[in-house]
Amino acid sequence: MKAEARIRFPLSVDISGKKVLIVDDVTDTGDTLKLSIGYVQSLNASEIRTAVLQHKTCSSFVPDFYGQKIIRWRWIIYPWARYEDLAGFTKRILEDGALDVSRIIYELKDRHGLEVGEKEILEILHDLAERKEIEKTEVDNLVKWQVRMK
User: Fold this and answer.
1) C-alpha neighbours within 13 Å on the C-beta side of residue 33
2) pLDDT digits (tens, 9 = 90+) for 44-98
3) Where does the Phosphoribosyltransferase domain lie (predicted)?
């Protein structure tokens, strides 16, 4: 299921007649920047430019400025999004069945090339469980985690 881009925090200042630079970390699908431009246009900005840290050439949107061009698609994990990305990857791994912490760590490394410590993964697992997305089970004194049955 693909998340849809949306405006979560509308601007609280008047930008009509202003020059606006929209900055994002990456162009992946391009949906976020397209949506942002449409939103800023609706607020009557006089000029709109876009900039990203990394531009993936597979994107349907080409920004005005970028720091790096990514030719071959790959997942990019930014320090400010690591936790969120790891939680998503972990939940996807658990869709294959119940796993213990060491196997989850192994799968993150094997599938995504990510080095994750036990403390970090336990924090993520407890948060996912608190959000009722996964659950902890115990089989033969071995703690496993699995996607919560609905």
Assistant:
1) 26
2) 999 999 999 999 999 999 999 999 999 988 888 888 888 988 999 999 999 999 9
3) 13-76
Q: Domain extents for the chain?
A: 1-76, 79-147
* Domain at 1-76: CATH code: 3.40.50.2020
**What's the whole-number mean pLDDT along residues 31-38?**
95
Amino acid at 5: A
What is the rounded distance in angstroms from the CA atom of residue 64 to the CA atom of residue 33? 11
Q: Among 29, 40, 30, which Cα is nearest to 63's?
A: 30
Length of the chain: 150
Domain 79-147 matching CATH 1.10.10.10: the answer reads: yes
